[in-house]
Amino acid sequence: MAGTLGLGGRSTAWASSGAPGKNVAVLGGGVGGLTAAHELAERGFSVVVYEPVGFGGKARSIPVPGTGRNGRKDLPGEHGFRFFPGFYQNLPDTMSRIPFPGNRNGCLGNLIDGSTIRMSRAGGRHDIFIPLDAADAPSWLTPEALRQLLAGWLETNMHLPPNELAYFANRILVFLTSCDERRFGQWEHTPWWDFVRAAKMSPEYQRMLALGVTRNVVATKAEVASTWTVAHMVEAFLWSALRRGNYQSPDRLLDAPTNEAWIHPWLAHLASLGVQLELGWKVTGMALDGGAIAGATVTNKAGATREIKADWYVCAIPIEHCRTIWGPDILAADPALRKAVTLDTDWMVGLQYFLRRRPPIVKGHVNYMDSPWALTSICQAQFWPQDFAKSFGDGTVVDCLSVDISEWNKKGILYGKTAKECTRQQVAEEVWAQLRAHLEDTGDEVLPEEGWHSWHLDPAVTDLGTPGAANSEQLLIHPVGTLGKRPNAVTKIPNLFLGADYVRNDIDLATMEGANEAGRMAANGVLEASGSTAPKVTLHTLYRAPELEASKAHDQLRYRLGLPNLYDLG
Question: Can you tell which superkingdom this protein's organism belongs to (predicted)?
Answer without folding.
Answer: Bacteria
